[in-house]
Amino acid sequence: MTDEYLWPARNVAEYAYCPRLFYLMEVEGLHLVNVHTEEGMNIHRKVDKPSRVKRSKEGDLIQEEQPKSVRSFTVRNSELKLMAIIDLVDIDGNQATPIEYRKGRPRRKGNFAEPWPTERVQVGLQALLLEQTGYEVKEAQIYYAREKMKLSLIVDTALKDEALEILEEAKNCAKGSRPLPLVNDERCSGCSLQPLCLPNEINYERLKNADEEFQPRKVWPPCDEGIQVVVQQQGTKIGVSGMSMRIKDAQGTLQKEIPLTNVESVSLLGSVQISTQAVQTLSDLGIPIAYLSPVGRLIALIDPLDSTSAEIRRSQVRKLDDPTVVLELSKALIIAKIANQRTLLMRNNAALPENVAKDLKKLIALTEKAKSVDSVRGYEGQAASLYFRHFAGTIKDILSEEFQKNGRVRRPALDPINACLSFAYTNLTNESVAACRLARLEPSIGALHVSRPGRPALALDLMEPFRPLIADSIVISAFNRGELGEGHFIRTASGCLMTDFGRRAFYNIYARRMDTLITHPTYGYRLSYRRMLILHARMIAAWLMGEIPDLSFLTTR
């Protein structure tokens, strides 16, 4: 049995637009939806309803002699190793005219309108497939929905040769490594895969030492903030109706209805019920569902299959088997982490002894010169010990005295500040797992943290520079503003835990921090902390793929 792959004509045509876009879509299976692709999908939904075959009352096929139009006409050819689902085909006897629907506008040259190269290739491939099926194709048409305009193309040898040439180039491209991004090209601006491709960021890192004329421009990234749904009320039931998520309490009373359009993730804490239909709908939309313990520990993750990229994960496994690569990544992570710890103490601890900042700066210098990962871990441990020795001085609440006495204690937490730190780190771990997933990285294969069963080692690596920036900052803000206090915690023989009311208050603070915009020190644009975490995960992927020479992480002044 042979598993013959047929190339989709729509994806092959993207090669004429951008070889890297073709590779990301076709070879790595990466897809993102933006306003342009959503508009295009809406247009295709109206036309892509398969035509029905007419039958007599006796069930026999009715042979029609008159011209007819067939929607979603599927054609395949093993010799070309090609397939297409054509939006509309007008058939008159043995003659066929493929009609492709587009949302945008044709290419303009003065007063003359013509199809874009991608469109020429796509209808050219459709014509070839129809001819292989036995039809005669003299022309193809492209309908532009925005302008309600139809263009006709003569299907001649030149068009078919152009399409075949692109087909062969695309096949050869798929056999090689990922192409580099376009440099300073307008085509990147509206591309749906820009957040995954990172053309401006990768080119900046690749060409920052090149001559001025090759310097890549800095472009604002698209705003793609999604909704993070967290449900923690025990007994809550989640279902779907159409394209909305319906959240009901234990008594069945509707509490909230959320449109699924912008939902990016769903997290369920403790005994929260979700229907099979809701799981299927969310998975179809590429939305992960995280099952967490009542205290926020990740138990399981329903991860849609389209979130994987074999190419990225092969590179990740190969590169992270190399001790030199592991050391370089570990050093970059810990240098940024210690720098951020130092900044946080200097900003928030007015009584910080002068030598603490100096000692942390020395540890950064030692980490830069480290020759082994164990040395990096040692310097990170020294920095953490020094950092938490003076962390209580950043908090003005009386509870800081108890933390100063206990020090940083993980399990079980002995006081409210320790409990809040642990809960913040748990949630940041879950965010980092999601960021690795969105970057198509395997969360369990890391560098600084040793891989163990059930341990998201790479996610733990990724979060290191962000611990002070996100988790620790949340704790400082929550207690200093009086948003969390003794009443939000319960003390038991097994330790100090947050109450349900405390967790609700925490998630409000957490959401506010994750949505805070911060300027990237290198690229100059502003992103939320959540997007910044995802950006760094994607930069790790680009580095592991060999697309950028160096790796650095976010630090603040």
From TrEMBL:
Keywords noted in UniProt: Antiviral defense, DNA-binding, Endonuclease, Exonuclease, Hydrolase, Iron, Iron-sulfur, Magnesium, Manganese, Metal-binding, Nuclease
Family in the record: Belongs to the CRISPR-associated endonuclease Cas1 family.
Name of the protein in question: CRISPR-associated endonuclease Cas1
Residues reported in the UniProt entry to bind Mn(2+): 380, 449, 464
HAMAP family the record matches: Cas1
Substrates-to-products reaction catalysed: exonucleolytic cleavage in the 5'- to 3'-direction to yield nucleoside 3'-phosphates
Transmembrane segments: none
Quaternary organization: Homodimer, forms a heterotetramer with a Cas2 homodimer.
Taxon lineage: Bacteria, Bacillati, Bacillota, Clostridia, Eubacteriales
Free-text function comment from the UniProt entry: CRISPR (clustered regularly interspaced short palindromic repeat), is an adaptive immune system that provides protection against mobile genetic elements (viruses, transposable elements and conjugative plasmids). CRISPR clusters contain spacers, sequences complementary to antecedent mobile elements, and target invading nucleic acids. CRISPR clusters are transcribed and processed into CRISPR RNA (crRNA). Acts as a dsDNA endonuclease. Involved in the integration of spacer DNA into the CRISPR cassette.
Domain DUF83: start-end pairs: 12-198
Record GO biological process: defense response to virus; maintenance of CRISPR repeat elements
Molecular function GO labels: DNA binding; endonuclease activity; exonuclease activity; iron-sulfur cluster binding; metal ion binding
Cofactor: Mg(2+); Mn(2+)
GN (gene name): cas1
Hydrolase as UniProt keyword: yes
EC number(s) from the headed UniProt entry: 3.1.-.-
UniProt keyword Repressor present: no
PANTHER family listed in its UniProt record: CRISPR-ASSOCIATED ENDONUCLEASE CAS1 1
